[in-house]
Amino acid sequence: MNDSPTYLSGLRLIDRRVVVVGGGHVAQRRVPHLIAAGARVHVVAPEVTPAIEGLVGSGEVTWHERGFEEGDLDDTWYCIAATNFPTVNERVSRAAEARRVFCVRADDALKATAWTPATGRHDGVTVAVLGNRDPGRSARVRDEIVEEMREGRIAARHEQGRTPGVVLVGGGPGEPELITVAGRKALMDADVVVADRLAPRELLGDLPTDVELVDVAKLPRGRSAQQEEINRVIVERALAGKRVVRFKGGDNFVFGRGYEEVIACREAGVPVTVIPGLTSPVAVPAVAGIPVTHRGVAHDFTVISGHLPPGHPESLTSWPAVAGLTGTLVLMMAVQNAPAIAAALVEGGRAPETPVAVVCEGTMPGERTVLSTLGTLADDLETQAVKPPAIIVIGEVVAVAHPESYPQHEPAGT
Ligand code: SAH
């Protein structure tokens, strides 16, 4: 049985005398933490490392340049026996015991009355780990916990300073690692999460169990009724004192109706902030290995919603003007109208041989790329049974990424 029970406590050492016996590397590691805790640190040792000497020089530590004497522990609250000599550490230990001073021993943990945990801090939280006298293991566990906190996988929710309001969080294109650190933190800090169909679903599985999850896909149908209901939910919850995250795929301001939610919050006097996300028209081609720009090939890229076909009375896009552009076109929400769009682009002067890549379910397990051209797009979408969500990339950059599929094209960017 090597388990030894301890009672973990946070010592508040401000202006209290702490004695470190020994001036070597163990002492050197402990002293800065004691200084940071506000202790009056006294080092007793005939010699000290240059680092400790520096702290003596700057007045942060008092150095008694000699061997240990029992009286060193008078008026002392805490001590560390960190010499290389077990007999000295033993004397320190006994003197501490006699004075009811807790004492850490560098050489023999079982004889000590206190142990030093591996500690780390993040965002106002201190983590302390005691790994049953295996300091390496303690440090590794500490590192992992602090790392998880930094990345938001452990919800370091703090009640102090938590202000109600709405945060629009862009979740990225789908793969859960492609959310920002800030986005992940906001998610873990939320009381209510209002999530879209395209928002990275796996991240919702990590939410603390007391978080209310509102699934927009389950709200009543009809585009505007649904949006009104979302606005109502986020405003109402925020006014009730909750932290609300409005969680969407990609970026909330890219065909995400995010700004309508900003306006609704402002009108209701609800504080609203925005955490951008990796937007799919850039991230999905990137992950599929297609650059949206390439030197000497495309000096512009244009992102267009294809949810309305060319010529539709409500369309705000000038397709003849788009056809006249020479750079990369990226179409979103365009699977259904792609045949009509391709025809309009050819009619407007784009060559039917122009390379096209359709990236379906980008960054997700079902990701696949269908290569085509403007002239053959309609047929290819049908024979390949392409379904949304998909990003359609049109232009020479597709041939740069897939030269083997477009042999008639000049090697580009040279
Ligand atoms: N706000 C989102 C876009 C919402 S519109 C963003 O910034 O990315 C929805 C469209 O985005 C889909 O029709 C599709 O064209 C595109 N899209 C989003 N995620 C995608 C993905 N993982 N793979 C392919 N297309 C995606």
CATH architecture of the largest domain: 2-Layer Sandwich
CATH classification class of the largest domain: Alpha Beta
Helix content: 25-40%
Rg, nearest Å:
32 Å
Helix-strand category: alpha/beta
What share of residues are in beta strands? 15-25%
- Major beta-sheet overview: 5 strands, parallel
**Span between termini:** 70 Å
> How much is the average pLDDT?
92
Per the CATH scheme, the topology name of the largest domain is Methyltransferase, Cobalt-precorrin-4 Transmethylase, Domain 2
CATH superfamily of the largest domain: Tetrapyrrole methylase, C-terminal domain
Strand order, largest beta sheet: 3-2-1-4-5
What does it look like?
By secondary structure, the protein is an alpha/beta fold. It folds into 4 domains: 17-116, Rossmann fold (3-Layer(aba) Sandwich); 118-155; 163-275, Tetrapyrrole methylase, N-terminal domain (Cobalt-precorrin-4 Transmethylase, domain 1), CATH 3.40.1010; 282-405, Tetrapyrrole methylase, C-terminal domain (Methyltransferase, Cobalt-precorrin-4 Transmethylase, Domain 2). Helices cover 29% and strands 20% of the residues. The protein has 12 helices and 17 strands. It has helices at 25-36, 50-57, 86-98, 135-150, 181-188, 223-239, 258-268, 280-287, 319-323, 338-347, 377-383, 396-401; strands spanning 17-21, 40-44, 61-64, 78-81, 102-105, 118-122, 125-129, 165-170, 192-195, 212-215, 243-248, 272-275, 301-305, 328-332, 355-360, 368-373, 390-394. The protein has a 5-stranded parallel beta sheet with strand order 3-2-1-4-5, sandwiched between helices. A 5-stranded parallel beta sheet has the order 10-9-11-8-12, with helices on both faces. A 5-stranded mixed beta sheet has the order 13-14-17-15-16, with helices on both faces. Strand 13 (301-305), helix 9 (319-323) and strand 14 (328-332) form a beta-alpha-beta unit. The longest helix is centred in the middle third of the chain and has 17 residues, at 223-239. The chain starts with 16 loop residues before the first strand and ends in a 13-residue tail after the last helix. Bound molecules: S-adenosyl-L-homocysteine. S-adenosyl-L-homocysteine is lined by residues 173-174, 198, 248-251, 254-256, 279-280, 284, 332-333, 359, 361-364, 388-391.
